[in-house]
User: Fold this.
Amino acid sequence: MVPATIVLGTQWGDEGKGKFTDLLAKEMSMVVRYQGGHNAGHTLVVDGETFALQLVPSGVLYDHIVPVIGNGVVVDPFVLLSEVDMLNRRGIDTSRLRVSGNAHLIMPYHQQLDALHERHLGKSKLGTTKRGIGPAYADKAMRLGIRVQDLLDEGIFREKLHASLLHTNKVLTKVFNRLPVDPDALADKVLTECLEPLKPFITDTTDLIHEALEADQHVLLEGAQATFLDLDHGTYPFVTSSNPTAGGACTGAGVGPRHIDRVVGVAKAYVTRVGAGPFPTELFDDVGTKIVDIGREYGTNTGRRRRPGWFDTVMLRHASRLNSLTELAITKIDVLDTFDVVKLCVAYEIDEVRTEKLPYHQSELHHATPIYEEMPGWKTDLSEIRRPEDLPAEALNYLKAIEKHVGVPISLVSTGPGRNQHLRLPA
Ligand code: GDP
Ligand code: IMO
Ligand code: MG
Assistant:
C-alpha cells in the first residue's frame, strides 16, 4: 500500500493550496477534499487560464484524477452543480467526480442563519464568508443535519427536512423575527433541481479511497482553510467550523493516520488573513499596502481585502507540531521581489518577556509584539526562475532562514500563479 499525502494550509488560508494540489496531482490518482465547503476559493492557473474552485477538488483539471468530495465536507448542492456546469462549459470532464453520501448538505436556511448570526454579533462579528458553513456543521453536531445520501430516499429526505426545520423555524421566527421556511416547498425544489444531476456522483467515498490505497494508487488529501482557522487549534472564535489540520484529513476522508506519510504545509512567503481575529505580524503601513497591491490580496470568491503581515515562524512551528509537517511549500515569494528589506518574525515579546512559542492564552496573542529578523531583499524578478541554483543569494537566504526557524525542509517554492512557475529544492 502506498500511503497518502496531505496538502494543507499553515496560516489563515489562501496560501496557494489549490496551486500546489494541482501541481502534485500530476503524480496522483485521486484528490480528496476532506473538510470545509464553498467558503474555500482555490485558484489554479494553467496555460494562462484561471479556474477558481470552491467545492470540486483541485485535481479535476487532469483526465487521470478521480476527484472526491469526502464525508467531512459540507455541500451546497446548488453550488456544486453550478461549479460542475461551469467546468463542463469550459471543457473539463467532471464525470469521475464522486461525493460522499455521508457529507452533510448546506441548505438555503443555513446561509440565511450565517448572515443573521453575523448581523446579530454586530461589532463582534467574525467576518464569515456567509456561505452557511457554521450553521450546517452546527446542525451536524446537533444531529439535525441532512446528509447527501438522504436525497436518495424522498420519504427520508422530507422527514429529515421537517424535523430539522421544526427547530430552525423556531429560531428564524422567534429569535430573528423572520418568516419560517416551508419544508415541502424546499424539498420539492432540492429534489427537482438537484437529485437527478447529483445521483451519479453519490457514493461510499471511504470505500473508494481505501480501494485506491489498496491498489497502490497515490491519494492526495486536499485541505481547505488552514491551521489557524481550525475549530480546535485556531484563534477561536475567529475560526471556521471544521478541522483543516491533519487530523481532520483522517476523519474527513475516513482513513487512519498510518495511511498517511507525507504532509505538505503550504505557506505564503508572508501572511494574510480575511475576517476578524488576532494577527501579531499584521502590517498597517505602506509595506502592507504594497503586499496587498502586488500580491493581489483580495478574496477569491468574496472579493474582500486580505489583511497583510510578515511571515511568522512562531505560528509555523506550532503548525508543524499540530500537523506533523514533513515538508513546506512556499508560495508568492515573487511578491517580495522589489522589497529592500524582508522580515521574519522569530519570537514574540509578551509583557516584556520573550517567547518562541505560541501563547496558550489567546488574550496574550492579542498584545504580542513580534520580534523580527531582518534580511536584505533580493531585488530580482523571480517569476521565471525554475532552478534553485538560479535563485539570488538573498532569496535563498530568506528560504533557509524559514527552514531553520520552523525546523521543516522546504521542498517546493512557487514564483507565480502559473502551474509551471515553481522550483523544487533538493532535500
Ligand atoms: P488557496 O485558497 O490556498 O488555494 O489560495 P487562493 O487561490 O485563495 O489564493 C492564492 C492566490 O495567489 C491565487 O490568486 C493564486 O493564483 C495566486 N498564487 C499562487 N501561488 C502564487 C505565487 O507563487 N505567486 C503569485 N504572485 N501568485 C500566486
Ligand atoms: P481557502 O480554502 C481564507 C475565514 C473567513 C472567516 C472565518 C470563518 O480559500 O483558504 P466561515 O465562512 O468559514 O464560517 O468563516 O474563516 N475563511 C477563510 N479565509 N481562506 C479560506 O478558504 C477561508 N474560509 C473561511 O474569512 O474569518
Ligand atoms: Mg482561497
About this structure: The mean pLDDT is 97. The first helix runs from residue 17 to 25. The pocket of 6-O-phosphoryl inosine monophosphate (ligand 2) is lined by residues 9, 13-14, 39-42, 126-129, 131, 133-134, 224-226, 229, 238, 240-241, 274-275 (CB under 6 Å). The CA atoms of residues 212 and 276 lie 40 Å apart.
